[in-house]
Amino acid sequence: MMQDEHIPQEDLVLYAMQAMRSHELAAVRVHLDRCAECRQALAEVNGDLALLAVSVDPKPLPEGARERSIARMTSEPSQAAGAGSSVIGIDSKRPARHAAVWIGWLAAAASLLFAFSQEQKVRSLNEQLAQQQQAAAQQAEANARAKQVLDVLTAPTANRVLLTAAKAKPEPSGRAVYLAESGGLVFQASDLAQLAQDKAYELWVIPANGQAPIAAGTFRPDAAGSASVLMPPLPKGVPAKAFGVTIEKAEGSATPTTPIILVGAVPASGE
Ligand SMILES: [Zn+2]
C-alpha cells in the first residue's frame, strides 16, 4: 500500500477486526496517524462492527450499517457529483472491491458468531458443572443418611427390640433386607439361643433361579440373643427366593447343614 493513497475499506475492516498482517499493519498505522479522513472511515467501520456485534441475532446486519456499506461500495455517479469537488469523497476515491469488502463483513460476522458459540459453550459447561455439584451434594447427603442408619444398626449400645403379638413367647426371629441389584443385605436377628464356642450361625441367600445357597456370613448372638449381618460380600444381580439361618462350625460352611433354624421366603411379585 502506497503512503499517499487512502486505506482501502477492506483493509480498514481487517484493521478493525485486528486481522491484519503485521507488515501491512505498520503502514496502516502511519497513514492513520496523519489522515483524518481514514480515521473517520475507521471510526465508521468500528461503529458498524459494534452494531453488528449487538445484533448478531436475529438480524445478521443492522439496517444503518448495511445501508452505509452498500452506499459506500456502489459508487453512484450522482453521489460523487453531488459531493462536489471541494470535498474529496471517500467513496469516489477508494476502489470499491465489493467481494473483498463483503468477505470482510462475513469474516467479522463469523468471528462474532464464533465468540457467541464459545460463550454458549462456556455457559453450557457451567450449567453441567452446577448439575454435577448438585448431584455430588445429593450423594453426600445420601451417604450421610446411610451412615446414620448404619451407626444405629451397628452401635453395641443400641436397644434391639422385636415387637410381636402381646403375651407371645419370644421365639428366635430374623429380618433380612435385600437389594438384589447391588447384592446389598442387612440382616438382624433376635432371641437367638446361645451356641457352643466352636459353633456359629450362618446366613444363606437362596437364589430364585434354583442354584445352590450362597453363604452370606457367620454370626454369634450377643448376651441378649441379638445379632446382625451387614453388607456381606455377595454377587450382584441375584434375585433371592428365600433366606435361611443354620448352625455351622465357627468358621462357616460351604453348604448349609440342617436343621434350618430360621427361614423366610421373599414375598412374590416384589411385594
Ligand atoms: Zn487516508
TrEMBL record:
GO terms for biological process: regulation of translation. It holds the Pfam family RskA_C. One of its GO terms (cellular component) is plasma membrane. It is found in: Cell membrane; Membrane. It is a single-pass membrane protein. InterPro entries: Anti-sigma-K/W_factor (IPR051474), Anti_sigma_zinc_sf (IPR041916), RskA_C (IPR018764). The lineage of its organism: Bacteria, Pseudomonadati, Acidobacteriota, Terriglobia, Terriglobales. It comes from the Bacteria. One of its GO terms (molecular function) is sigma factor antagonist activity. Its main location: membrane. This is Regulator of SigK. Keywords: Cell membrane, Coiled coil, Membrane, Transmembrane, Transmembrane helix. Residues 115-142 form a coiled coil. Residues 106-259 form the Anti-sigma K factor RskA C-terminal domain. Gene3D superfamilies: Anti-sigma factor, zinc-finger domain (1.10.10.1320).
